[in-house]
């Protein structure tokens, strides 16, 4: 099987591609255009539509999907955010218009992260261990808005023609859905989070790449543009490595380079004015981080949280693509930058919303020794 997937942000594309790396080998991940005429059999693409309008998301995804490989071994995958952020209904409609599948299997549950679908509604854990909170988006209504007749299904049921929306609360549920879909003879469009992608990989006889003997080359440069509480807690757990920079100017670059040279690790955030609007903050972070990385020598490892931040950095560095080759742990994919100023640099990425407070500290513990012969 050759996975061909589209996600609405770059961390999502990498997270999901990581599930298939053991099947397909390194998977190139693009964000600007498909690499015609030398189109690889397996690929992932960041449409950048998470913050786009519904109509723009539809147009962009339709154009990308129309250009994807359609060989007998192609596995078309519409990556959905497990919190149902973005424009899932419009993007699935764009896929259908571009590829004309016989079966559309929609299963956005991601039990590993506590995100389940029950009665056609996506839920996340509530404030206590026994409660659940529905996500803000109603995916069934979103699909019906696109004039689809949505058929609700449970694991173990036969896969109907057309659009089916699947309940799933465990990995075993997703495995059953994947097995049923893989047994079909017609063309299938798979629509889900990294959870369904992992189930497909398991049914094909492989698991996502194991984190065997991972060492992160120094110096490790961390750039964090998200203020999500999960990421804030992770940064707060590593105070000795954190630099809050005022901007991406030459003084900030010098201070950061000195810290990298001295310690081999530096985690940079950008100090922002109180009350700055979200869109203004995102634009400022992208602009200042772009200025910053253009002044720095390539690190051994680039550690980034947040899809918008990673995409902006790749654009600023004139990179062509990321070659996804596995994951450190589920939700923490690893890749290599190709092209541009940081060509060949190892990249570790994650969603800003992902992980417990100790995640970043555990990642830094994987740093290569400072000196040859030093015990890790």
Short structural summary:
This protein is 33% helix and 24% strand.
- Helix and strand element order: EHEEHEHEEEEHEEHEHEHEHEHEHEEEH
Distance separating the two termini: 38 Å
Uncertain residue segments: 372-376
Query: Helical element count?
Result: 11
Helix content: 25-40%
- Gyration radius (Cα, Å) is 21 Å
CATH class of the largest domain: Alpha Beta
In terms of DSSP E residues, the strand content is 15-25%
Structural class: alpha/beta
Q: What profile does the largest beta sheet have?
A: 15 strands, mixed
Look at the structure and name the CATH superfamily of the largest domain. Putative sugar-binding, N-terminal domain
**Under the CATH scheme, which architecture of the largest domain would be assigned?**
3-Layer(aba) Sandwich
Q: What shape does the CA trace take?
A: globular
Integer average pLDDT:
93
What is the total number of structural domains? 2
Tell me the number of strands.
Answer: 18
Describe this structure in words.
The protein is an alpha/beta fold and 376 residues long. It has two domains: 2-203, Putative sugar-binding, N-terminal domain (Rossmann fold); 220-364, Four-carbon acid sugar kinase, nucleotide binding domain (Molybdenum Cofactor Biosythetic Enzyme, Chain A). The protein is 33% helix and 24% strand. It has eleven helices and 18 strands. α1 runs parallel beside α6 (194-203), α3 packs across α4 (139-145) and α5 (171-182) packs across α6 (194-203). The longest helix has 16 residues, at 278-293. The two termini are 38 Å apart.
């Amino acid at each position: 099987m050759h996975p061909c997937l589209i996600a609405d942000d770059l961390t999502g594309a990498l997270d999901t591609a990581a599930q298939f790396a053991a099947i397909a080998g390194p998977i190139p991940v693009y964000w600007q255009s498909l690499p015609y005429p030398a189109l690889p059999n397996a690929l992932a693409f960041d449409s950048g539509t998470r913050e786009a309008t519904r109509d723009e998301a539809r147009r962009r995804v339709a154009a990308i999907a129309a250009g994807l490989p359609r060989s007998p071994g192609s596995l078309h995958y519409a990556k959905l955010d497990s919190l149902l952020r973005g424009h899932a209904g419009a993007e699935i409609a764009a896929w259908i218009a571009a590829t004309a599948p016989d079966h559309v299997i929609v299963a956005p549950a991601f039990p590993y992260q506590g995100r389940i679908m029950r009665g056609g509604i996506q839920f996340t854990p509530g404030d206590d261990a026994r409660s659940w909170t529905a996500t803000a988006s109603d995916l069934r209504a979103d699909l019906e808005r696109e004039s689809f007749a949505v058929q609700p299904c449970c694991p173990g049921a036969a896969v109907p023609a057309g659009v089916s929306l699947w309940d799933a609360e465990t990995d075993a549920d997703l495995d059953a859905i994947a097995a049923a879909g893989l047994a079909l003879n017609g063309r299938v469009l798979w629509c889900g989070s990294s959870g369904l992608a992992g189930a497909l990989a398991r049914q094909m006889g492989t698991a996502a790449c194991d984190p065997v003997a991972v060492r992160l080359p120094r110096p490790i440069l961390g750039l964090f543009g998200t203020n999500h509480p999960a990421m804030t807690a992770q940064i707060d757990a590593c105070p000795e490595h954190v630099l809050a920079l005022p901007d991406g100017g030459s003084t900030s670059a010098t201070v950061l380079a000195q810290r990298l040279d001295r310690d081999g690790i530096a985690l940079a955030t950008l100090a922002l004015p109180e009350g700055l609007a979200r869109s203004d903050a995102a634009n400022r972070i992208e602009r200042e981080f772009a200025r910053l990385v253009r002044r720095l020598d390539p690190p051994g490892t680039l550690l980034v949280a947040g899809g918008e931040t990673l995409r902006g950095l790749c654009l600023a560095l004139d990179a062509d693509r990321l070659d996804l080759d596995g994951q450190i742990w589920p939700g923490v994919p690893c890749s290599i930058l190709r092209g541009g100023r940081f060509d060949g640099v190892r990249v570790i990425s994650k969603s800003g919303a992902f992980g417990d407070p100790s995640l970043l500290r555990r990642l830094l513990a994987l740093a290569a020794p400072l000196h040859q012969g030093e015990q890790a």
